[in-house]
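Box 3.1 A note on notation
Throughout this textbook, protein chains are presented in two layers. The first layer is the amino acid sequence; the second is a token string describing backbone geometry. Keep the layers aligned when reading.
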Amino acid sequence: MLKKIISIIGYEPTLIIALPFSIILFLLLIIIRPIIQIRVGFLRSDRLGHFAANTELYLCERDFYPNKSRSFDIFYFARKPCNDYLAKMWRRRLIILPWFFMRPLDLIIRTFSFLSPLHAFEARGGDRDIDNLYEKTGPHLQFEPMEIDLGEACLRRMGIPSGAKFICLTVRDSAYLNKIYQDGKGGSADSTYHDYRDSSIDKYIQAAENLAKHGFYVVRMGVVVNSPMNTTNPKIIDYAKNGMRSEFMDIYLGAKCEFCISVGTGFDAIPAIFRRPILQVNNAPIGYAYTWGRNSFFISKHHIDIETGKRLSLRDIFARGAAFCLDSKEFLRKGITLRENSSEEINHAVIEMIKHLNGTLKLQSKDDLLQHQFWKIYHEGLRSSNQATLHGDIHSRYSLSFLRNNQSWLN
């Protein structure tokens, strides 16, 4: 740890200036600890998913577990926030002090294991709601009246009428990570390790058009994206490309959407922390699926054996160790390539979501059996991989239409 501190200070030599002040603060913490328990920690502020979900789940744990709320916690941003407006909103709920002073203090505390009681705890599951706390607590972020007025005015300028329902669509491609790495903010120069999560926006046009027919507006999210949405439908708004994007509206749209269609990327943490339903399509790896939302569905990418060209069953995916791969090269080493969900599969999952939310989803006679089969295999795969702790009580459902049309996948 000492070597790490030296390397950090070598990378940020200005920290040496703050070090004497940090030592004084450290001694003060030790002196007053018998009276006031103060802890120090950082927020994972560089990636939106962690910045939103880890922080929200920390607050959920403080609410739900009284023994974790007796201390006085002080935070700092480990890196420049990826969304300054979200940082502004977190400052309303947390004490967040300047990095310049807090970073050396935190490093001092982390150097010695016996000082661990001085370190602010992080959410037990990181960004995963393994204790199902989202449904047991309310959202910790609220918009002020002026922000609501601003958000509604922005919706009108985007062409979304007052009271109209809209869906957030977030489809990951390589553009965002490439930009981060080109700007020198991503560490390693290779951003291709997450290419297995990419998806083509063209596969979502059919579902977006169908949503528009049902009266929804569709807002395609994204900070930077490779391709535009090829549609002239006025109810489909390419917010990521039309020049109207702002950090405030990223948060407002995620908080106010009817539900979010996502491929399992950072943005979907925004609707999640505001307790909005999530439809996750093209999920990979399947072992990390979003499973804690009662109003949420998901569907995964097809796993294809490179040598035979055959699709792997759910059991095969776990048996081949592919359910937890977090690097494109890992899939290739296991002889697996991933194929995106078809436009029809995505559209059917969207229809299920709409019907579920408006109470018109009718289950067929085999649906409960198919869900039971899916989750039985899934739980067996988690246990055999020693990864059961990634999930709490599972409340999400796998796409009904996919299971109906692919019953052999569960063999």
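The mean pLDDT is 90. The radius of gyration is 23 Å.
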